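We both want to read discrete structure tokens more fluently, so let's practise on a single case. Would you write everything just below, so we can both look at the same thing?
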Amino acid sequence: MGLFGLFNKKKQETLDKGLEKTKQSVFDKLTRAVAGKSKVDDEVLDDLEEVLITSDVGVDTTVKIIRRIEERVARDKYVSTSELNGILRDEIATLLSENNTEDNEDWDLPTDHRPYVILIVGVNGVGKTTTIGKLAYQFKNAGKKVYLGAADTFRAAAIEQLSIWGERVGVPVIKQQMGSDPASVAFDTLSSAKANGADVVIIDTAGRLHNKVGLMNELKKIKDVMKKVLPDAPDEVMLVLDGSTGQNAFEQARQFAAVTQITSLAITKLDGTAKGGVVIGISDQLKVPVKYIGLGEGMEDLQLFNKRRFVDSLFDH
């Protein structure tokens, strides 16, 4: 059993409910695309292309999916519109596999070293601090000793927010005053976590994308300083994105990928939007695996991403 427990009926219900708006939108469009058609022809494929693009899958990824379906239609000679759902599921799941997105149910902390260090990046307002709080809660629930580092020293509100989460979850937060050197906070956090036998360290950072050079230098300095305490740190650089912003999330992802090496994605706020297709597109374009998806306000509503369950839920009606 993985760190965050089995994928149970409750988690399946949360996933289905969280994707409801996207699902409804995709299905309504798909139904219109195949109305009155018995087989998948050029016209259906054109309509399908439009369905995927307007579901925020993104142009490049959509073209890739359509090309694969065209090849399948050419190979099988006749594909009925009733088969389209199944084909879409297969092709999208395959695409996610190619982007190194594994089914994370069995994911656990590596046994060869501790603490496991996660550096969190993302612009303000995407649910970064909330994601850190939920992660801390779930790690702690799994019996792990967690430390948080408030290295977004650019905003007093960010430090305060993380401190509130720390109190709520019952984990220590290492912080300094607003305006302090973020790398210094990261150093203190790792030193303290290492000295106290922590299992997991999660460090928040500032997300000022308008100053890309500054951000790049800041993240590099944080990483360099971390390595003085733990040579392998960070184990993970996780980009948090707001799924409800659709194409805007794409743009943010591209810009962050340009300034630092991202190793995993957490896509939040999928429950309030019809733009869930963005999960497929961002992962494909960045070639970075989606690790977590946020499907609601509850502590348990941040789920480890399972590509097959996600795709099945999206195309189940």
Remarks:
- The chain has a mean pLDDT of 89.
- The CA atoms of residues 45 and 70 lie 8 Å apart.
